[in-house]
Design goal:
By secondary structure, the protein is mostly beta strands. It has one helix at residues 3-25, and strands at 27-35, 41-44, 56-61, 64-65, 74-77, 89-97, 104-105, 118-124, 129-135, 143-149, 152-159, 168-173, 179-188, 194-196, 200-204, 211-214, 219-232, 237-247, 255-260, 263-268. Strands 10, 11, 13, 14 and 15 form a five-stranded antiparallel beta sheet that branches. Strands 16, 17, 18, 19 and 20 form a five-stranded antiparallel beta sheet that branches. The radius of gyration is 30 Å and the shape is elongated.
């Protein structure tokens, strides 16, 4: 091969590399990552600012080019064409011309899980052992255990979900108070969606908890360990915890409201 042909080939290679570099500099990419939730992605497209073609020029899903029609004002990325399992990892690349136009993802949370579980069984025994079984868990979301006390549902625990369509079995040891104890479980999703199980309850024969205020020691002492909340007269939470004693030395002299055990009461700091 003569020197002229070698020079020509080198020139062509340099030009080709230069074109690739220019194209990469004139291109942008939007990346969406998550897990497949049996939902597709919707894109608002636009005509390129140059007036030639549309803003988006390619879509890749997990490294594979999508076959969806993208030359329109809006288009859908159909994820079912990639035969994904529910919960499978997904990375979408939306490549667009970087001439001022940027496509808009209309439902960016479509790859984030929402609760889908079905409660097949839930029960609690007289020792406070809460057990439940679920099916159809599309995602591995945590189960939050709530107890109804102090006229509201209060979170008392959390258990990691296993995910999957098969039946999963869970348990959680609660700390019951005297009298009626009522529980439920829930999962929270990423699009303001929460799903609850039916509630279950049982009556404990444990004695009621009482308390005394020791002004010298600046403490409130319970007859046994308990969860507690203390609010000021404006409804602000000033103390919260679990134990057999509350230090109230840093509280101002005033009236306060206290939740403990299964009781709601009022006390005065003198």
């Amino acid at each position: 091969m003569d020197l002229i042909n070698l020079a020509m080939i080198k020139k062509i290679i340099i030009i080709f590399i230069s074109v690739l570099l220019v194209n990469s500099l004139l291109a942008g990419v939007i990346i969406i990552e998550g897990e497949y939730q049996n939902r597709n992605i919707y894109i608002q497209n636009s005509i390129s600012y140059s007036g030639v073609g549309y803003c988006t020029y390619a879509v890749l899903v997990n490294g594979q080019f999508s076959t969806d029609e993208i030359n329109s004002d809006a288009f859908e990325i159909s994820l079912d064409q990639f035969q994904l399992e529910i919960g499978a990892p997904v990375m979408i690349e939306i490549r667009y011309k970087d001439d001022g136009c940027i496509p808009k993802v209309l439902n960016p949370n479509a790859l984030l899980p929402n609760p889908t579980f079905e409660t097949s069984n839930i029960s609690i025994d007289n020792r406070g052992n809460l057990q439940w079984s679920t099916t159809n868990e599309n995602a591995k979301l945590s189960f939050i255990i709530e107890q109804f006390k102090w006229n509201k549902w209060v979170q008392v625990g959390q258990v990691d979900g296993n995910g999957g369509e098969k039946e999963n079995h869970y348990q959680f040891q609660t700390t019951p108070h005297s009298g009626r104890n009522k529980y439920r479980i829930k999962q929270k999703g990423y699009i303001d969606k929460t799903k609850y199980s039916p509630s279950v309850s049982y009556t404990s024969i444990r004695p009621e908890i009482s308390y005394l205020i020791y002004e010298r020691k600046q403490t409130i002492e319970f007859t046994e360990e308990t969860s507690f909340e203390v609010y000021d007269k404006f409804g602000n939470l000033v103390k919260k915890g679990h134990g057999s004693r509350i230090n109230i030395a840093n509280l101002q002299k005033d009236t306060y409201y206290m939740n403990y055990g299964n009781s709601i009461t009022e006390f005065k700091k003198k």
